[in-house]
Amino acid sequence: MNQSLKKILIKTKKQVFSEIIGNNTSLQKGEGYDFCELKEYEYGEDVKNIDWMISAKMQKPYVKVFHTQKELNIKIVSLLNGSTYFGTKRFKQDVITQIASTLGFICVKQGDPFASYIANETCKVCTKKSKQIFNVNFMAEQMFNYNVIGKTIDYPHITNELFKTIHHKSIIFLLGDFFDIEKLDLKLLSKKHEIFAIIIRDKFEEEPIELGNVNFNDPSTNQNFEGLLNTNTIEAYIKSVKENDHKLFTHFQDNAIRFVKIYTDEDPVKKLIGLLK
């Protein structure tokens, strides 16, 4: 196993099993012990959940609602395309691997089964449903060594495949940089499943600096770009990124998708804790 990958796995495993992280990730409501809210009693509900003190004060029956304590089905979907082969501090692909490993170890710690996918032009199963640590290691190795050069993201195909192949209600984690999201539509998928989006970016992608004459290669299309990276070019680029993200965040909010942005120079665990609370 690659030494860099070993370091990622050792670090993430230590963080997950030594910190309180990952508990109660689901928004589902049902039978359990974790109190969620009070609501008016409706015909057919279990009378055991009636809060008699509140009902007496309000002069109408109220019942307690709890978060479900059922075993969760977790799906980790890594969107690995050419643009993830970039990073000024660390490659985005490496950060995606670290985050996916962290989520996998959380599943093992909580006793929840997880499966993983690598998605771009296709959506292929990376690891099948499991609760074992060796599955986390295998998933990380597949993602870390995956050749992303020349790969592009086909959002309609990915969402259709996930909708067709994931039959039971699940928690789906989507990991990617989420650029070029014109064809991204998670409305149908979010009605069937609970979705978390984790956006991995490099700060240079959002705020590039003036470099003068440049020669870039697009790892997604293998096309070369030669030009002048000056103030005007940068302003136009930043504007397009902000438009992309505004559309992205609006889409997430409209479909009740929780999301977080993590940069390549950050330790992702703290932000994951905030997302999963």
From TrEMBL:
<feature type="domain" description="DUF58">
    <location>
        <begin position="38"/>
        <end position="242"/>
    </location>
</feature>
<dbReference type="Pfam" id="PF01882">
    <property type="entry name" value="DUF58"/>
</dbReference>
<protein>
    <submittedName>
        <fullName>DUF58 domain-containing protein</fullName>
    </submittedName>
</protein>
<dbReference type="InterPro" id="IPR002881">
    <property type="entry name" value="DUF58"/>
</dbReference>
